[in-house]
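thought: user wants a sequence for this fold. calling inverse folding tool.
action: design(structure=
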């Protein structure tokens, strides 16, 4: 039975229909993808462990969403988000 489930997950993932947990953190500025999963419920159950790991690593601003997708990279690091302490648009005085 487990082999059939793994085969189905692989097939769904091939077509971009498998569920993935997308976890975005503000500090560090990263996007993590965990999966693939057969169902949204399976992905939600698994995110509890990923969330605990990120909290132990002192990640801040954690947002989780479950998506049907096929991520190219499993971890995306946003260097600019970590360099900008204000996380907003720069304000210019207009003087030259």
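)
observation: tool returned 96 residues.
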């Amino acid at each position: 039975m487990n082999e059939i489930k793994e085969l189905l997950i692989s097939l769904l993932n091939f077509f971009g229909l498998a569920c993935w947990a997308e976890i975005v953190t503000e500090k560090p500025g990263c996007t993590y993808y965990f999966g693939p999963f057969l169902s949204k419920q399976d992905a939600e159950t698994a995110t509890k462990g990923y969330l605990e790991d990120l909290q132990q690593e002192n990640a801040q601003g954690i947002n989780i969403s479950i998506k049907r997708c096929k991520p190219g990279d499993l971890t995306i690091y946003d260097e600019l988000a970590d360099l900008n302490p204000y996380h907003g648009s720069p304000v210019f005085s207009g003087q030259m």
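thought: summarizing for user.
answer: Here is the designed sequence. The longest strand covers residues 30-37.
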